[in-house]
Amino acid sequence: MSTPKETVHHVFVSCPVYRSFRQHATQTLITETSRILDSAEVPLLICRSFLQVVRCLFEDGPVWPQSLSRFYLGLTPPLPALTGLPGAKTSRLLVRIAHTWHTSCIRLAGRIWAEYKRRVRPAPSKKNNNAVAAFLRNVPNPPSHLQVTSVHPAQPDILVQHDLSVSTSHIEFLRLSINDPSAQYHKLKGLISSFDFPSLQNFRLPLPALRRVLSQCLVSKLRPHLAYQPITETDAVHLDHLITAKVHEYFSFPFHFNSTLLSLPLSLHGFDFPSISRLNRVAAVNGLLLTFSSISHSSALAMNLDCFRTSAWVYHGETYGLIASTIHQYNLPSPPSHLPSSPTLYTDHLNSSRIVSSALHLPPLPHQWSSLPGRSLYRWLLHLLQHSPPPHHPPNIIYTPAHTNSSSTPSTVNALADRLASGSQHLQIWPPPAPLPTFFMDSFMLYSPNDGYIETSISSYLPSVLTSAAYSSPDFRPAMTMLLPFHDQHTPPEHPYLRASSAYSALVQLYARSDQLDTTYARFRRFGNVSPMCISGCDALETVHHVFVSCPVYRSFRQHATQTLITETSRILDSAEVPLLICRSFLQVVRCLFEDGPVWPQSLSRFYLGLTPPLPALTGLPGAKTSRLLVRIAHTWHTSCIRLAGRIWAEYKRRVRPAPSKKNNNAVAIDLPSFLSPILSS
Q1: Which domain of life is it from (predicted)?
Q2: Alpha carbons 443 and 421: distance in angstroms, whole number
Q3: So what's the pLDDT on residue 440?
Q4: CA–CA separation, 283 vs 541, rounded Å?
């Protein structure tokens, strides 16, 4: 008898070794299909036809075209007809069954193939003569081998001794050289040097696309290496420079932009590119190891969270409000017998209610607490709920949506609490400070003189500290160019920098904020080979400010952008029903946005850097509505500024380097056939 060939069909459909896998999948799918059909009240005769197909799904048979099963390709036979059900219901039922069958087929194929590979390539022997028992550093006279006690794999009651070697230099772990930063650096440098951006004929990818390509195709390879073996800070900065050099060469601008600016977040007017230096520092550290308001039926309390310093977030205020309300309830007289023994405590913070409810039913494990921001407050609240003083009972924490038009009691009281919290921020005498719950903090806490105790994860806290330090560095020249504290503080919109399909304006911003645009004055200062005067004939030095703000050649661009922005700003303000006097103050700023004037700090326009003057104050509107309206106006102005800067610079480059003439004196005259002459004449 000849042995069958090991084809793909044989492995998945015919091989008896995997028969148990197919039988188990068949029984499971019969049960699942029956449940679906029963819930839809399908007639018994039709149910039998479906189940008959299921019984033959994982084997050759007449239900399959050509009687050959193809389940391992994610295919299924044609489904039996469904009659007697409404059309829409029939369609949904067939889709549900088809998806269930398809999922079962590909899962079975995966199980069979995994077992096949396990049999073809069995696990390597556990004996390893080169295994390392310990990695010792700074130990005098270390031993060459160590005895390690283990158990016998077949008889766990028997202890065995393994003689394993000791390394004092470095070890190989997951194909990485541990404690060998130099080898790691050269390996990462090789990955970066061999990386190239996609080559597209007559087309360059925009800056946001390059950011995604770098993150997904290059940094995704570098990050795991850094996680197991960080490198020195100097080497990490050099790798950042290699990446930024590739970005600069791709766009072929004459002068190199600032490397640090490329990786700063949008809030600091950066471009949010990945930074090897920050990833390296976070990996190294990982290896080491607002205001709230509470209202009851008879009183109200407001406190500030200055004790949390800059680490105070919304969840601190919301959770502290729940704590204060719980303590306040315990100090009230016991409720009458006709009222519920456990009062209801409403909160508009859905996350807090979910965390507390989950912790009461199933206490979180230590590693779950360690990743929870503000965990000391949640521990305090959980302790209060679990240790209510008799005769009081712990309150029931219920979520209620915020900022709704509902007139229910919870919504009304929530709106009152929001107004009290917002109003307390403008009092001449601030509310008293809330105490810092150090008694429920971790035994060991990260502490910063500026931020206080850090309860967030180090990997999320450290990048923000590093970016702030990079921006504040005296060597960071764009900070002196932009002077962010004097201008509007809203974060720029994400779309032009992270998602736009055509982002020339963002590219101009990268070089403008780095003070690396190649005007004639910049070339004169560096090379001295050109005149520093304006090429358009102006009696002025051709500085970046002159080109974008003062040069009369581009006045029509600025006037058109001003009129467009006035129209857009008026539409936004009218839709929000802003008073006429405030509208005029906003429009007055818009009229002077693209020229020097008193609305600007130092009376110098910086619109070409994506900056805008501080926005006028909005009064008479609710706090949340005011915030959203100001963000919308700030984003509209910012987008208009960088687009105008992009248009002006494109026109400037066109004038400096005009397109080559299409006239070609060396062209060869070709006589066209007579039947093609009408094409030219038309």
Answers
A1: Eukaryota
A2: 32
A3: 83
A4: 48
Is residue 241 within 8 A of residue 259, CB to CB? The reply is: yes
- For residues 440 and 233, is the Cβ–Cβ distance under 8 A? no
- Cis peptide bond upstream of 391, omega within 30: yes
In whole angstroms, how far apart are CA 191 and each of 243, 262, 493?
11, 20, 33
* Phi, psi dihedral angles at 300 (to 5 degrees): -140, 155
What is the tens place of the pLDDT at every residue in 595-631?
Answer: 999 999 999 999 999 999 999 988 777 666 888 999 9
End-to-end CA distance of the chain: 80
Structural domains of the chain, ranges and CATH numbers in brackets: 8-120 (no CATH), 196-287 (no CATH), 291-443 (3.30.420), 479-656 (no CATH)
Q: Which residues pair with 639 in a beta bridge?
A: none
- The per-residue pLDDT for range 151-167, each reduced to its tens digit, is 776 676 778 887 777 77
Which pLDDT value is given to residue 61? 92
Structure tokens at 400: 């209620």
Tell me what pLDDT residue 344 has. Answer: 82
Which residues touch 287 (CB under 8 Å, ≥6 apart)?
230
Six-digit token string for 23: 């039988």
What are the C-alpha distances in Å from 225 to residues 241, 268, 310, 672? 18, 29, 33, 64
pLDDT for the residue numbered 170: 62
Dist CA 37 CA 47 (whole Å): 7
DSSP one-letter code for 124? P
DSSP three-state, residue 150: strand
Q: Are strands 132-135 and 159-167 parallel, antiparallel or unpaired?
A: parallel
- The residue ranges of the chain whose pLDDT is under 70 are 1-2, 122-139, 153-154, 156, 168-178, 287-316, 367, 422, 424-427, 622-624, 658-682
Question: Per the structure block, which two tokens stand in for 108?
Answer: 């079975």
